[in-house]
């Protein structure tokens, strides 16, 4: 029986196995004892099974309405739909930490299953590092965040879930986002293992890159899903509010993107090795820091889970051990790593170095803007706000050169390149960007949106041209180009698609700056005009829901007298939580969104008026479509046989290479 007690014992067992996983393989690798090193995969799988048992016990408690479990009583109710009873397991602090630990256990088991081609000592060390990190989170669960804690007397019904979280988008947002966060623990473990071993080479770069790409794909989808949720649930008409918790996910995404590109240089040229190791440490450190900031209550946000100093202190201690320990090891061992190959500034390596500089500069800007207000409050007791104007003014100037050089980088050869031949191949992309700039000048306002839109066209066109150049399209028979395309590695297609996805997202972002909106208070039967459309409020009715009552409006939208769509925005009242939420109605044709929100009811019952928020958002779907295209590009790169099958054989250490002692 999947009882809470069984879940608690399974969690304790997982913690014990994680401690063993974090210690025994390291001892085996140090002593070159193959029998001890071979314990690592079994311990990782055993820990995963124990965590899965604990998680299923918590899910069972939620589904069966076991309100004697404090976590279920505080976050569920009898009337809550079954889907949200299940997904609500991770919609709270305790459940989200257990989910984090479960995903970390999956990562350890995945390395055990798919890392059979790794050298035994390296695999043992990687699994050991993952076990040590998992032990910290599982101990956190058992001490300050026990998801199986009982409450007595058990209430007849629970308090219910935050109504904002009762949505499919946010229900699946945390697992995807956490998989991205936790997935970067694997490159982190490879970095720590490399520092212990004292060796980073092309084979190491090949092994790290697929794990980094997989984590990046999940993090990209998680961020996009959270942005989409903000857009269609909060009813503010926007998609990104530079919320501190939103920024906490963007920061590791930026360094993770830099890590992927840097690992390519390690694999191809054995350069940037020390920098790549540092990026792997930094990316996972930022993931952990975001967890601390949200759960300690330092960052106030609609996304925040808890404000508990005891939990914050525990995570702060865990951060000090993981981040401080890894940086101390880096400072001690990095100088002993062998230097990489030389390259000219104008080369593929040079372009990737510039990519890293710009991405890390963006990360520094976002980190500063996010952390400056809480530190000012903590140190000087001053309350300040850093919002959209600051981030727009500081990130856009850094993003513009990044977009420019995205077009050049993939076409530059390794080691040394001539810029003029590349420019000759990109003249069509430059021409299209110039035409786009001229066209957007007549249809958009503001130089920055126009420039960013033109650069988005440049990025998309250069990505397409890169592929056409590689297959020699229009320069040889079509059958020959098709044959060359079949022979190209999938990672090349993946890179071009991911870059094009960036361009699509940037087009959506720039177009959204031209959005039109109107807030009105009108009685039923009134027609408003916005962006060439006639919006008529034809009816407002009261309708019951499974655990709420809803006030539902009917909006007829016409263009040139013809009905385009009928929209039904609503307001939902949840009596158990005494909370009201908005349900946005959106009609899209992929080129623009018609976006309607029902606000408060005023006046008397005989002559009521209703507040309406109406939006016309051009190219809004492109923001999330671009993120999906980016993730597809990453998945296509992962399907490359060079990443899926085997790994390069490591060369014997040179006399200058430090080996483990």
TrEMBL record:
<dbReference type="GO" id="GO:0015232">
    <property type="term" value="F:heme transmembrane transporter activity"/>
</dbReference>
<dbReference type="GO" id="GO:0017004">
    <property type="term" value="P:cytochrome complex assembly"/>
</dbReference>
<feature type="domain" description="Cytochrome c assembly protein">
    <location>
        <begin position="90"/>
        <end position="296"/>
    </location>
</feature>
<feature type="transmembrane region" description="Helical">
    <location>
        <begin position="619"/>
        <end position="639"/>
    </location>
</feature>
<dbReference type="Pfam" id="PF16327">
    <property type="entry name" value="CcmF_C"/>
</dbReference>
<feature type="transmembrane region" description="Helical">
    <location>
        <begin position="353"/>
        <end position="375"/>
    </location>
</feature>
<comment type="function">
    <text>Required for the biogenesis of c-type cytochromes. Possible subunit of a heme lyase.</text>
</comment>
<dbReference type="GO" id="GO:0020037">
    <property type="term" value="F:heme binding"/>
</dbReference>
<dbReference type="GO" id="GO:0005886">
    <property type="term" value="C:plasma membrane"/>
</dbReference>
<dbReference type="InterPro" id="IPR003568">
    <property type="entry name" value="Cyt_c_biogenesis_CcmF"/>
</dbReference>
<dbReference type="InterPro" id="IPR032523">
    <property type="entry name" value="CcmF_C"/>
</dbReference>
<feature type="transmembrane region" description="Helical">
    <location>
        <begin position="488"/>
        <end position="512"/>
    </location>
</feature>
<keyword id="KW-0812">Transmembrane</keyword>
<feature type="transmembrane region" description="Helical">
    <location>
        <begin position="208"/>
        <end position="230"/>
    </location>
</feature>
<feature type="transmembrane region" description="Helical">
    <location>
        <begin position="97"/>
        <end position="114"/>
    </location>
</feature>
<keyword id="KW-0201">Cytochrome c-type biogenesis</keyword>
<feature type="transmembrane region" description="Helical">
    <location>
        <begin position="39"/>
        <end position="63"/>
    </location>
</feature>
<keyword id="KW-0472">Membrane</keyword>
<keyword id="KW-1133">Transmembrane helix</keyword>
<feature type="transmembrane region" description="Helical">
    <location>
        <begin position="6"/>
        <end position="27"/>
    </location>
</feature>
<feature type="transmembrane region" description="Helical">
    <location>
        <begin position="426"/>
        <end position="442"/>
    </location>
</feature>
<feature type="transmembrane region" description="Helical">
    <location>
        <begin position="274"/>
        <end position="293"/>
    </location>
</feature>
<feature type="transmembrane region" description="Helical">
    <location>
        <begin position="250"/>
        <end position="267"/>
    </location>
</feature>
<feature type="transmembrane region" description="Helical">
    <location>
        <begin position="176"/>
        <end position="196"/>
    </location>
</feature>
<keyword id="KW-1003">Cell membrane</keyword>
<keyword id="KW-0997">Cell inner membrane</keyword>
<feature type="transmembrane region" description="Helical">
    <location>
        <begin position="313"/>
        <end position="332"/>
    </location>
</feature>
<dbReference type="InterPro" id="IPR002541">
    <property type="entry name" value="Cyt_c_assembly"/>
</dbReference>
<feature type="transmembrane region" description="Helical">
    <location>
        <begin position="448"/>
        <end position="467"/>
    </location>
</feature>
<dbReference type="Pfam" id="PF01578">
    <property type="entry name" value="Cytochrom_C_asm"/>
</dbReference>
<feature type="transmembrane region" description="Helical">
    <location>
        <begin position="395"/>
        <end position="414"/>
    </location>
</feature>
<feature type="domain" description="Cytochrome c-type biogenesis protein CcmF C-terminal">
    <location>
        <begin position="316"/>
        <end position="641"/>
    </location>
</feature>
<dbReference type="InterPro" id="IPR003567">
    <property type="entry name" value="Cyt_c_biogenesis"/>
</dbReference>
<comment type="similarity">
    <text>Belongs to the CcmF/CycK/Ccl1/NrfE/CcsA family.</text>
</comment>
<protein>
    <submittedName>
        <fullName>Cytochrome c-type biogenesis protein CycK</fullName>
    </submittedName>
</protein>
<feature type="transmembrane region" description="Helical">
    <location>
        <begin position="126"/>
        <end position="145"/>
    </location>
</feature>
